[in-house]
Predict the 3D structure of the following.
Amino acid sequence: MHHDLRPCSVAVGLGSHDLGVADTAADLYHRGLAPLIVFTGATSSTTRALMPRGEAVHYKERALELGVPDSAILVEPRARNTGENIRFARALLEEAGANVSSVLLVSKPYEERRAYATARKLWPEADVVSASAPQTFQEYLSSIGDDRKVIDMLVGALQRLAVYPQYGFMVSQPIPDVVLNAYRRLVGSGYTSRLIAEG
């Protein structure tokens, strides 16, 4: 989303198959952009083998390896989707007595807009700044090592961005025609494993 990064009350790292989210959150912490990190996420079909202890737990372990102190990390291990990531992280921070006015929302690069739209719906009073690893598409593909998986996830993320606002899961975001046309071509080419049933 090309947000300008600025200091926020907390960084929230959204669980996924990509440990780069934890790397980015740790980097933001070390740069002084957030004094506290919440990692949120359980496991899913795409992370069960890779992160058997849960996404948030593996993210925390990675951040500790990168020098983030344990005292600066909270773990929310139950969330199974982006909406739960936001709701459960918010509740955990409230329970901890954290004063949160702004959030660095850390996700995979292609999830920035979806995460932002979800947070605007579920945490409207927080000033949300989207963040991810500064990578080109080719660099991201290389970091994951599975082009098909990434493209399937891109297609799924775009579908959710288009349909979730009508269910009240996120605020609406403009989607250019060129993006919708690319989405339709990819669906037609069989990149459908991450699509949800509509209706």
